[in-house]
Amino acid sequence: MRYTELGTTGIKASVISFGGIPIQRVSVEEAADILSACKESGINFIDTARLYTNSEEKIGEYFKGHGREGWYVASKSPARDRDGMLQDLARSIENMACDYIDLYQLHNVSTVQDMERVLGPGGALEALEEAKKQGLVRHIGLTGHKPEILDTGVSSGRFECLQVPFNAMEKQALPLLKKAKQKGMGTIAMKPLAGGALTLAAAALDYILNCSWVDVAIPGMQSVREVQENCSVVEGKVTDKERRQLEKLIAGLGTHFCRRCEYCQPCPNGLNIPSMFLFEGYYTRYNLKEWAMERYSALPVKASDCTQCGVCESRCPYELPIRKMLKDTAAIMGK
Ligand code: SF4
Ligand code: SF4
Asked: Ligand 2 centroid vs 318 CA: distance in angstroms?
């Protein structure tokens, strides 16, 4: 494993670190096995969130059994006011059985109003600055999907780390990453595999590790095999042929694709929106028609059950035309 300074925080993090979204989908025992594999591979930085259902608890269970020593722990909260943030921080600390959290972040600040709220008097940032003085939090970070909104936070000089989506296909945050890095902030690439769309993981991670404006990438990992595969990229064995294959894959994906971030969920009508697009993608792009149709058929609610209410579109950070995409999915998958 290779390690890098996360800005000026003093954290020396593994360049491939652990994104905590997928462990929601595995058992406590499997999560512990995955985290043990991370440790064996040299991963020392975990990123999770209050919103990732039981991800924090599973990390906490692992720490209770194996100890927290040697790990840097990051989490985040969607709270926008001081009291909400203090409550969430206390919950994160309890969930992860920690005395303190190395990096606590404002989660997905996505509107001008939200940014004004978190930075203003009685805002969430005030709570984290208090918590830092008390030693409950070592460093404060900012996350989100919209560089034009996050720019205000980066310019404020009150955050030590920035976490944004960045990968070989989604480079819109590059100028902001550069600005953050030049201000001495740590920079973290979330969605390094574009929510699973970049199936050539080694080449996709290699692309990020070669970007001087990014400190660490945090791919989500839901198996020991994925941990080993992702960590192997630091051995520098990615070939030019694999890089060309990645370019071809990106060209085939276009712009209207779902990153599986799940911010659009829950749908009031029970549609599992990212799964719809996942199976449609496998059906149309990966020559796995039978496999995709079998799984799509097993979903209790189909794309054709969408009532076109639009709630999901207001939540999608990529502003995808979900309703139109679901109509297309229903046409392709037959229901
Ligand atoms: S538009 Fe369709 S998928 Fe989106 S929230 Fe409404 S019913 Fe669910
Ligand atoms: S539709 Fe948008 S919000 Fe929903 S999972 Fe896909 S990218 Fe995320």
From this structure: 7
Q: Is 316 in the pocket of ligand 2 (CB under 6 A)?
A: yes
Q: Provide the residue count of the chain.
A: 335
In a domain, 261, yes or no: no
pLDDT band at residue 287 under the 50/70/90 scheme: low
pLDDT one-digit tens code per residue, 300-317: 999 999 999 999 999 998
Nearest C-alpha neighbor of 317 from the set 88, 142, 149: 149
Rounded Cα distance, 238 and 89, in Å: 40
Domain-terminating residue out of 214, 238, 262: 238
Q: CA–CA separation, 123 vs 197, rounded Å?
A: 36
User: Model-level pTM?
Assistant: 0.82
Task: Respond yes or no on whether the N-terminal peptide bond of residue 266 is cis (omega within 30° of 0).
Answer: yes
Residues 38, 43: Cα–Cα separation, whole Å: 5
